[in-house]
Amino acid sequence: MNSVVNALEIVLADTYALYLKTQNYHWNVEGRDFKPLHEMFGSQYNDLFEAIDVIGELIRGIGSRTIGTFEDFSKLTNIKGGNKDADAEHMVADLLHDHELIGQTLGKASKVAQQAGDGVAASYLGERMAVHRKTAWMLKSTLVK
User: Domain range spanning residue 53?
Assistant: First the structure.
């Protein structure tokens, strides 16, 4: 199978897993920072939802079928499941870790796309790296006391 497709499938699985975790935390966050965290997590999972579609369509544009089951995603993702009972600070720290982790996954995938001469995939992966870097910065900034 195409190495770019393989790399994009891992990005898709990580993005989908992070989407689910972020939505879980959006629903279950509690505490004095509920409103700003609820809104921030909502904005983040909406962004991830849009990215899922684009990544799947990039794979289809290469000419491959796109994975799309929980089983497929769970085999490929680097993102661990969330804890609905975690406190707000743990949720933020957990998401921060995952945005940094997915940034690494995107970096690897971007290199694969560049080496394969797929400028379209490489460009989009670079855009996603910027989004996750900014999101990590925002999450990290909420942890500063």
Answer: 3-143
